[in-house]
Amino acid sequence: MTIGKSNAAGAPERAGKAALSGTLAPYQRSSAKRALWQLATTLIPYLLLWYVIYQVVDVSLWLTIPPAILAGAFLMRLFIILHDCGHGSYFASRSANDIVGFLTGALTFTPYDHWRWQHAIHHGTAGHLDKRGTGDIWTMTVQEYLESSPWRRVAYRLSRNPLVLFALAPFYLFLIDHRFASRNAGAPQRRSVRWMNVVFVVTAISMSWIFGLGPYLLIQATIMLVAGAAGIWLFYVQHQFADAYWERGDNWDYTAAALRGSSFYKLPRVLQWFSANIGFHHIHHLSPRIPNYNLQKCHEGEPLFQQVKPLTLWASLRCLTVHCWDEESGKLVGYAHVRRLRRQQRRNDLPRS
Length: 353
Known about the structure:
- The chain has helices spanning 17-24, 32-56, 65-86, 94-108, 112-125, 142-147, 150-159, 162-176, 187-211, 213-239, 254-261, 269-274, 281-286, 292-301, 303-306, 313-316, 335-349, and strands spanning 140-141, 264-266, 310-312, 324-326, 331-333.
- By secondary structure, it is mostly helical.
- The strands form 2 sheets. Strands 1-4-5 form a 3-stranded mixed beta sheet. A two-stranded parallel sheet has the order 2-3.
- Strand 4 and strand 5 form a beta hairpin.
- The chain is globular, with a radius of gyration of 22 Å.
């Protein structure tokens, strides 16, 4: 397949949609057998870990922490199954996707229809500077940051602080944010939020009765912290890296946003398994109809995708040092770069003698 020009990382900036459609079609086929096997090997261990926790909670609350941490890893994988159901890719049957999506949503306290709607907006606007704000990480341009009030800059820095992102945000997202429908949500999305709130309350009451309120809160908080922090980290590094893609107006291109604005996060095998191949995010954004269990095969089978430079686990830590999009250089830059620009602006604003 012939592709267009490449960016500095080697990814094609534009590729023919018709050619891409033919390339991706074989990988978009869902497999009930593979989906059910993946669901079984994720859900059954998750439930068994809760049983282990139930057995040891009366012996020592500290003994519940290791299985709770492992349960958090399985819960993250269950969320990615929900994610695939939301894209209609996990099963060929829409009903099957909706049923499994609702059930995995109940385990993660996520209103399935509402989340699916918001996530679809994210896929249609990722990397578009004029359409930020739904289902993404708050990202300012350098100029926006420089022109913001001191309080807004403080809020922005706090929102991207690792402690806030990976310790506080998981609880806010799953316990508070998911309890309310967006102002623009339709009736089905609002209904899904109401039903999930019922599930949330019933689950909290039932599990508190079984384990005791204090132990349940500690166990659930541990599981949620692990699953939520890992999930937010994955989402963060998949779009917040130095050479990411952001454009305005007609310059924005869906294919370029997928291949350049979504990272290929190359993880060790065990982490790739728990994250259900979501590290192949460049392919996922190009075609959300490809189920997670076909992503690696697609990446390895098509030379086009191997041109995308991988982001390794070690290199991904540098994503925590870039925060604002510099429209002049076309890169995410750190606060030190922004401070240099601010000092330069102040010097330029000084009256000349």
